[in-house]
């Protein structure tokens, strides 16, 4: 009985496929075995875990007493640091009190020096328009602001109103500066006395300026022109 060529090729193909499958299975098994070397199955017995924990918890711990010398050293260091901090604080407070006393004594002994530091040679400056007088009496430094003592007087027969947000303050370069007014009346009665107030300007705005100028007008007519220039800046 003769076997046809087609049958032979089919059998050969089946043999090759089975051989390739066997070889690939062998290599896969071999590679998997190498990859899992050193890996063990986890313990899944909860009873054993509880038993281990109970054994650990029932094991007595050894009591180690602290050396008495160590305790005394720690207590001494703690109290010594506290006493040292208190002494340094008292010394600092006494030094500050001595400085304050010296400062107050120097001010009491030299009242003229304090007054001269707030007085400028060019002041007072004043301007008058239509019976209304504006006078800058003195200048002084108040913390971070430059303060000007200002007098306003209405010698006319009609009341005059002011809106002090219209007050223009400029430095020697013509730059506008923000200013705050205190104690000045919004309306000056006729034939009035002097009304005193203050104009305050932040010192940081006038670091590089030597003089200032004020310009104040009435509201709402804006007929008055109270202009004062060359107002000296004190440092």
TrEMBL record:
Check the UniProt entry and state the signal peptide residues, or none.
1-25
Q: Where is the composition biased (Basic and acidic residues)?
A: 49-63, 80-102
| Residue ranges of the region described as Disordered | 37-63, 80-122
Where does the record place Polar residues bias? 107-121
What keywords does the record list, in alphabetical order? Answer: Signal
Q: What is this protein called?
A: DUF4352 domain-containing protein
What is the native source organism of this protein?
A: Crocosphaera watsonii WH 0003
């Amino acid at each position: 009985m003769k076997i046809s060529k087609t049958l032979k090729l089919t059998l050969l193909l089946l043999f090759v496929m089975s051989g390739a499958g066997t070889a690939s299975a062998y290599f896969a098994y071999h590679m998997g075995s190498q990859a899992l070397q050193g890996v063990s199955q986890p313990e899944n017995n909860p009873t054993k875990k509880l038993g281990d924990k109970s054994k650990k918890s029932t094991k007595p711990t050894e009591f180690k007493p602290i050396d008495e010398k160590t305790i005394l050293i720690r207590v001494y260091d703690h109290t010594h640091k506290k006493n040292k901090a208190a002494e340094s604080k008292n010394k600092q407070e006494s030094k500050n009190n001595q400085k304050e006393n010296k400062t107050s004594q120097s001010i009491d002994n030299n009242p003229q020096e304090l007054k001269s530091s707030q007085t400028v040679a060019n002041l007072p400056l004043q301007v008058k328009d239509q019976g209304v007088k504006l006078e800058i009496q003195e200048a002084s430094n108040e913390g971070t602001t430059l303060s000007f003592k200002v007098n306003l007087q209405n010698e006319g027969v009609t009341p005059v109103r002011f809106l002090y947000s219209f007050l223009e303050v400029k430095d020697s370069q013509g730059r506008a500066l923000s200013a705050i007014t205190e104690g000045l009346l919004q309306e000056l009665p006729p034939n009035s006395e002097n009304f005193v107030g203050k104009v305050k300007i932040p010192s940081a705005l006038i670091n590089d300026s030597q003089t200032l100028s004020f310009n104040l007008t009435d509201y709402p007519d804006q007929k008055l022109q109270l202009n004062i220039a060359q107002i000296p800046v004190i440092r």
